[in-house]
Request: fold
Amino acid sequence: MSFAALLFYLCGALAIASALSMLLNARDALASALSLVVTMVSLAVIYVLLEAHLVAAIQVLVYAGAVVVLFLFVVMLLNLRREEFSPSRQKLVRAASGFALVLALTQFLRWLAPGLRPFPALPTGFGSHRVLGIALYTDYVLLVELVSLVLLAAIVASVVLVKRRLDS
Amino acid sequence: MPTELALKTLLILLVVVGGIAPLMSWIERKRAGGAQANVRRSGIGELTPAGSHHPLAEKVALLGSARFASAAAQRVLQRAIPLIVAIPAIIAFAVIPLGGEYQFGDTRFSLVLSDADWGMLTLFALAMLGTYGSVIAGCSNDAEPALLRSVRAPAQMLSYQLAMGLSLVGLFMVFETLKLSEIAMAQDTTLRALGLFEHAFGLSRPLLEWARLPAWGVIYQPLAFVLFLASITAANARAPFDLPEGDAEQIASKHFEYSGLHFGLFFNSESVQIVVSAGLLATLFLGGWSVPYLSSDFILYGVGRWLGDGFANGFLLLIHVAAFVAKLAAMIGVQLALRAAVRRMSYLRAMDLCWKVILPLAFGNILATGLVLLAVRQSA
Reply:
């Protein structure tokens, strides 16, 4: 097994394990959020293996970094504790639905598998910030600007919402 | 290749963690104390020449101090956090080029451990991961004051990391790359200091050719240098932005909740962060390993003509590493001197400075750089 394959299986297993731990620890918000960080970072390693270096860096920078730190802020400020969650009564239902979901996914993958072909050779510069940047600012410039408008609207909206509460 | 990688890694660990960091803790004790004419801060005194035993004595003292953890603390997390802070800080140094590439016979020897296209992005991502230390240090002890404290320090670090990234965009526009080795390479030359005025005043050609400056980032982007220095100092929570450890502020949990060697790891990773910031400042703004006015080609040609190519490359390697270390030392000195010279800010002022001064200036810098680049490329 090559080093890349080894890394892939290792990070894949880690991503699945930490995703499970995120769900299973749902009552301990801190542990849950930290498991999410591990999932994000192991996904970033898989992106690197797929030659999507920029996506990997942004994954760590934005998701593992900024977003989860904000989650943690919320967790800390609300100070959610284990006792505040009502005890779960639907263990059986949850286990069954999880099992059904896994079954459905494997069936879907099995259905998908015959249609899969090996990837064509990657074009030079694939996944680099340069290629992505040029694509974003030429072919997709309208979409980029629209998304930035949506983000701006979200920022303004959040400021307005908080401001109203502060004023009253 | 793997052995080469392992050797270089070992070298970096030895030099940065084992060598420079203890030296810095000595400077912080003795020299900063001297700068403030504060006899007490010079600590244990002069048992050895110039108190050179301090770095070691400090660690021994930490070994002996009692470890504290509340009964409710989440043990695993609490133990892991100092490591989670220390490891990204050390890894970050792998991206910084200590020198260029050198040809020995048929083998090329490179002094860059990890030469990725997205090198700068890696550094930002690692800096981001470092903030987890401050966040989780508060949660893991399960005490409410610690929780509140651990919101303030990461808020400051995150804000300034944003400013740090934005202040560098102008520099990336000038050098057209995010690869640190290419940025260093691009500075290994000179630029015509009066080139901008070529068309304006009808200056004579010889004057334009002779008035040269090293093509360093700080010459292209002086404002970015100041903004980046300020924001990286604040992102590392160093003076004058060291509010997380200020007595009058709500101090950061890592200084409060940890003792003994766990605190020692936090403390040491701060030193490593300073070394990494200094390396970054030197590489981005001060030409990295390049020697001003003496480009690699010039030295190779000059020395190689008399003493052969192999010797010339070896000589070049030594002189480049020496230049890099000198710049590194200067930038470490600047950061340590800042601590001795400037008073601590209040938390609100520091946040105001980030959002109302540094960020707008960084955006202005990006806009101005874009306009100038456009004008220069149109006229060329």
Q: What stands out?
A: The first strand of chain B starts at residue 101 and ends at 104. The mean pLDDT of chain B is 80. Strands of chain B lie at 101-104, 107-110, 190-192, 212-214.
